[in-house]
Structure formats: C-alpha cells, structure tokens
Amino acid sequence: MKKVNLKKIFGLLAILVCGLTVSLSLTSCDNDVLNEIFDDGVESWDDYVSIKITRCERVGHNLIIDYEMKNKKDREVRVTASRPEYSSSSLLPIVDNLGNGYGAFFSFASEKYYWGYSHVNISAKNTVTGHIKIENFDDSNKAQKVNCKMYIVIDGVDIDYEHRLFSQDGIKITDKRILKDGVQTNDNNLVYTIQSCRFNDNGNVILNFSVKNNTDYDLKNYELSGSKVYDDMGNSYDAYLSNSENSEYRSYQDWSISDGASINVSCAIKNVNKNAKNITVWLNNGIGNYIPTDDVVRFITIPIQK
Q1: Cα dist. 22→15, 28, 29, 33 in Å?
Q2: Which of 104, 123, 182, 302 has the fewest CB atoms within 10 Å around its CB?
Q3: In terms of Cα–Cα distance, which of 238, 290, 85 is closest to 93?
Q4: What is the pLDDT of residues 118-127, one digit of tens each?
Q5: How far is Cα 46 from Cα 176, in angstroms, rounded to an integer?
Q6: DSSP state of 305
Q7: Which of helix, strand or coil describes residue 154?
C-alpha cells in the first residue's frame, strides 16, 4: 500500500483554511509554507534569493537594467550573476522586441562593470542592487521592450543549469535622455555648456565648450575622444580635441578636474563642407576613478556660425 503523505495533506488543509479566510485568495498565505508544500525537491536559485527588476532605461547609447536581489536565507550567501551560455541565440542575456540580441556587463552596488558576470556577498535577509549594462543598444531608438536572461549561481550549492536561469520577458524601456541647449546626456554630474561653434579661416569647424565636475570626486584622467560626427548634409567627419584653439589637436585628450571645477575644451572638425549649416558631434568619455552614468556626450544639430 502506498504511504500517505500526511505533511502534504495537512498542508492542503492549511491552504483551504487560508483561502476561506480571505475569500478564496491565497495572497495572505505564508509563501514559505506554500513553497514547502509544492517543493519538487530540486534546488533552484530562487530558493536562496529573489529578484525584482526596478529600472530599464536608455542611458546614452547604452541600456541599463537595475534589479533588487534579496537573500531569503538566515545566513550570508555569495551570488554570481552571469550571462547564460551562448550555445543558442535564445539564451543571449538581452533580446529586444525587434529581435536584436546583445551581450552584457554585470555589476553590483554601483561598482565596476565586468563583462559577462559579477559577484556579491549578501548578508542574511539583506537586499543589494544589481546592474546590467548593454552597450551600443538599438541605435534606431525603435526598441520598446526587452527580454532578460541570466544565470544565478549560489556559491557552494550544486544547481543544474535549468534551475539557475532567471528569465523575464517584456520589460518596458524608459527614455529620460534630455536635450538641453544642444547637449544630450543622462549624466547630471558632468555639466556640458556650449560656448561657440563656427568655421575658422582653414575651413574647419571649431566647437568650444566647458565641462563642470559635480561628481563629488576629483576626477583623474578624464578623457574625451571622437565617436561620431556628421553635418546636416549627411557628411561624416573625425573629431580632434584640445585644451584651446591655440594648442595641438589630437584624436583624444585628457584632463584632471577637481570637484566643483570646470575645464574648457576645443573640438576641431576638419574640412567641413562649406554649405553645412549645423553639426552633430558624439564624444566618448572615460574616467579613471569614476564610472560615468553616460559614457557618451552628444552635441546635437549645433548651428555653425560663419
């Protein structure tokens, strides 16, 4: 005769009582009790942590996904969030609603991003913030949603691949990029102000602007380099940077900027079509001791004075 599972019987009775007390709703039942009743005996990542997506936003030419990860256990756990295996296009970390797939960088607690994975220790019942960065995301700006997949590995626990996969589809993308005075960037801690944009006597366009540091850090090796430049006629160019119009222009330039201080930057675009009326300039920025919110600053359709 088959052995009766009294635990499951009493558990089902508990559900019935709980349902009667909340008008047939199970929302007030203890989740741990329900999980124990229907546990299939196979360990999964969500036995240890829970994940809640809190943000999916275009940041410059990147997409940033933030999520809260909570430790369910009464002890510290070490967690690795990583990309799934690339054996199938369906397991790319990010796929947009246009069908484009992307690799991803991972980070916890706003620390350095790592390609493909990141680790964190979470104390008992505590919550940390995780981040996923997708570079060069959807230049068409037409994607509206993404599907997200990642492996969640618990240190010291043997979980098979199927049960370490986190997956959430249809995450809505927000876009809060602001175009202010011709400058587009999400990074409110670096303030870019256009000073002038004009043709010089050599047929080059000189874009002069300032950068103010409001990051609360003394920035070391703040570097700018050309990314993309084009005029209103569709012509493409290269950008060169300098401290001033009287200094040597290079394909990149770096500065040190104290907190609260500003620098002046001169950007030269050489041999621009004389009939061009405006110019758009994308510049990459990198900082040795600070992770910028937006690593590209865009000067959009800036009128050219003649």
Answers
A1: 11, 7, 9, 16
A2: 123
A3: 85
A4: 999 999 999 9
A5: 32
A6: B
A7: strand
Q: How far is it, in rounded angstroms, from Cα 101 to Cα 218?
A: 37
The residue-averaged pLDDT of 207-212 equals 96
Q: Which amino acid is present at 303?
A: P
Nearest Cα to Cα of residue 168 among 117, 132, 213: 132
Residue located via tokens 């589809």: 169
pTM: 0.61
User: What proportion of the chain, given as a percentage, has pLDDT over 70?
Assistant: 83
The long-range contacts involving 253-257, CB below 8 angstroms and separated by at least 24 positions, are: 253/223, 253/224, 253/225, 254/221, 254/222, 254/223, 254/224, 255/219, 255/222, 255/223, 256/218, 256/219, 256/220, 256/221, 256/222, 257/211, 257/213, 257/218, 257/219, 257/222
- Torsional class of 144: left (φ above 0), alpha (ψ -120 to 50), beta (otherwise): alpha
Tokens 């990198």 found at: 286
Tokens 């959807």 appear where? 138
Give the alpha-carbon dihedral of 119, 124, 128, 134, to 10 degrees. 40
